[in-house]
Fold each of these.
Amino acid sequence: MKETQRGSWIPESLNDSNYSSVLDVFEKACKKYQDKDAYSSFGHSISFSELDKLSDAFACYLQNDTDLEPGDRIAIQLPNILQFPVTLLGAMKAGLIVVNTNPLYSPRELEHQFNDAQVKALVVYEGVASNVEKILDKTTIKYVLTTNLADLHGFVHRQLINNVVKYVKKMIPAFSLPTAIKLRGAMMAHYGKQPEKIARKIDDVAVLQYTGGTTGVSKGVMLTHGNIVSNMLQASEVICKAPEHWKDIVIAPLPLYHIYAFTISLIVMESGGQSVLIANPRDIPGFVKELSKWKFTGFLGLNTLFVALCNHKDFPKADFSQFCMTISGGMALTHDCAELWHKTTGVKVMEGYGLTETSPIVAVNPVNDIEIGTIGFAVKESIVRVIDDSEQDVADGEPGELCVKGPQVMKGYWNHPEETAVSFTKDGFFKTGDIAVQDANGRLTIVDRAKDLIIVSGFNVYPNEVEDIASSHPKVLECAAIGIKHEVSGETVKLFVVASDSSLEVAELRNYCKENLANYKVPKDVEFVDELPKSNVGKVLRRMLRE
């Protein structure tokens, strides 16, 4: 695959349906399954037909009430609520590139992402709009649309939920965005209208998915329509061996702004399945209560969530009579967790592996051949290699860096051609940074990470970013961050600190970090030390800190 071809094609062996874009997947599903429910949230469902109409309305707003052009970037900063698929589909209909944005981001993180992507429009949940207020005038954003949790529900339900959220639970901090408009009003003004058709090519960028790097600087991964559709079809090829009804009602607690959840949701949509969106999966009692309302068939989760649910007294009372598929990703699945979930629900966990740069799925355990502790086999039309430092293949059973080539591999990093270049081998394989072993049958096992990446409940945390923030505190001389094992979240961040002022306290430093980092990146453990272990050239040896 030549450099210019990277991420710009869908193999014929996968594309029986002749999809030309992510939008094409949405539109064909909306026409085929018009009267079926597509998404549910807080007790309200929208059909495929209604999803089509609402997204048309949003696309008409973008085309008629703004000066946005195809290829411009729009950020969507929403939890799992109905507005997410509606605005994403509408933005794509208008030819815009979607920048998926974590609602948990701090103002500093938002400012960097919005400016790096040169975002011109933003759809934001009101519960986090106060963070946007702090940095809006420092960004390129011209249009802001705000929305509350139940804005697409019927009048009575909408008023009830939104008022409880705002006035009873007080989950909407005060904010002032004078130029912002209400998303619901913008859409209703164009409801029933048809947007202008925008031609999209398979190698056009569909989304910018931000991820960290070894430098800790967040970069936009350019995922094309071809990348995402290919990966949807690759994953479907494996998952289709499950009972056909697994996609009927799928519980979706993982955020759609995460590429893993987004790609799986496409698979569900393509087959006419219904996704039950969970806005706050950290509220385990509320989550279990919601589950009690459904005869769900599929579940998309990760290790942290499986453990938390199984440890809740009411979860075993859920109706598992139709349940037949659990998909896990985002973080390593432990044997204990897999066994606990199987014992509680009667369904085995199907674990896969991927990265943002690969849309994300690289390998997965087949439904009928699950081996916990491994990541299974490379998906169709993917080639994997396990290499040494000189980019030579290692023998079966020997550890080396896992590399992948396939139609799901990113086009590159947005505005970072140098970083893109060093992320690939000389012959065009993407270097994952993970150390793997492959057996004679092709089954893969991740044994270590070449990068210092920390994974907290499925979220990537890069030590350099944490260190940059902590070391900017005036009382910190230097510091180093590592991940330490945690039975619930997989890992947490631990920070070793050499203080320049002995009056520095843990609470003071953690509060400082909270102001500048998403909560999952904030060190849970801070240890003051006299000095950090270093190499002869002064490089901090995180390996020794782990030991």
Note: Residues 454-546 form a domain with the GMP Synthetase; Chain A, domain 3 fold (CATH 3.30.300.30).
Amino acid sequence: MTRGETLEASELPFHDQKLLKPRRPLSSPRFDHAEMKPLPLILGSTNTIEEQKKKKTFFQLKLTAEQVQKLKKDANNDNNGFQSGEPYSRFEAIGAHLWRSACKARELSKDQPTVFQTVVDIRRKLNPPLPQNYFGNALAFTISPMCCVGDIVSKPLSYAAKNIREAVERINDEYIRSQIDFFACEKRMDRIRTPFLEKGEYREDALFYGNPNFGVTSWMSMTVYEADFGWGRLVHFGQGALFPFDRGLLALSPDMDGSILVFMHFQEAHMQNFIKIVQFSVVSLI
């Protein structure tokens, strides 16, 4: 439209959010939804306030196509059990490596519990699927089973990848509908909303995905470099805000050569250690 072109009816943005409304009559969630409950704490801590207060920083890393393939090969080297028979994906392999690197950089106890958090695009997970032109975020939160840091850092990369896969494969139509019901029944939405505010207040009951836990979101399926608003090809795609907890976001490089950008949000105290361990090229530091 910005180029003065017209859209077919099937291309017009679909805005009807009734497709994602809770069931009526409203019923209790069918699943436990551990992803919406307090996550593991630093051993010896009683809440996350101190971790929330620690300064976070942003930096951008880049994996070459060769590094991506090596991580996939490492993750698939042993048969630590992908039950579906499908080899681990680049998201699972990169996510596993980032999670392991975060655990090492923080120098946590080997007995420290940790989980991996991510979000899953639910457009094709629902039954029936959302219209292809559905406009806006359509995501479900999920976490891995609880692991010990010692296992994440010492076992093969496939161990972390397997736990990430379990988190993703949990998301199906029934789980999504139950999560929507959970939100509808939740009387303290501010507890869930607070962590996503750039300068949110510190709350003992707020969800906190940071240390000792770690999260990764994939933007690799977003075809952002195909966008042309009438001014030519997009030359830069990035983030506009700093997350208040440790997190990585994966995106395709504008070079379109198979390389991947990682937008990292991490505790400043552990940043240099993380960069040394992860062994990706540093594109920028803030």
Note: DSSP finds eight helices and nine strands in the chain.
Amino acid sequence: MKKIKTIHVSIAIITLKILLIVLILSVYLPKASESDLLFDSTFFWFLLAGFLAQMVDGALGMAYGVTSNSVLLGFGLSPRLASATVHTAEVFTTGVSGLSHIRVGNFDLKLFLNLFVPGVISASAGAFLLGSIIEGKVIKPFIAAYLIILGVFILSKVFKKKPKIKENLKFAPVYALFGGFLDAIGGGGWGPIVTSNLIRQGNTPNIVIGTVNTAEFFVTFFSAGILIYFTGIQSWQIILGLIIGGTLAAPIGAIITKKIPHKSMMIIVGCMIILTSSYTLIKALFL
């Protein structure tokens, strides 16, 4: 593990993205009809959705999955299919975002290695359960309630007088374990769970966000591969719209992360968690 360098992470991201493209083409194109390959308004709506979701995710380290998944569920997709679609798109958006963060210096290799293995293992297990056994909507209200509490806690910490900040990566693998599993099942949650807890423990926000985003690429890659196996690909327009929109926004989000002051970023992160999770909870319980 000590011989792993940042350049190796970048090479792995590019290689796995190419492999997923091959997988998508081999799964979808043989079954696609001529009408499936035509553009309509669906593509452009999800292009916009992907751009806005990744702008937020790249700058704050969270909310792409939550935002995109909520839109897909609103369009009538099942939790299983919505999660498969979001994770497939996220492989490309998080890949570009991760490379952008590495380039501008928002990356810590030690933290990345603490997140990578447990995140991939738990995400793979969650994707398998969602694809073959359970529905994500069962557990989603519990995830949303937890995130609301976490968002409030972060905001309360921001406004404490002269807080004692001591960086701590001790529990990073634990956060990755839970974050990867819940993200695969609920269609989102890796960023809010992992990023929020690491920031809450006093770690530098822009480094946490960049590193968590980079690790998320590998988490989503394995989730997407497993979910595609179970669900297939239903609409290339939704996936391509999310991918292109998110890819365009990813470099901008990395730059914003570098410029925003730490305190301001924590306020934004806390508010974003509360708002997106409240929407998810209300929709899961009452709509």
Note: The first helix runs from residue 6 to 28.
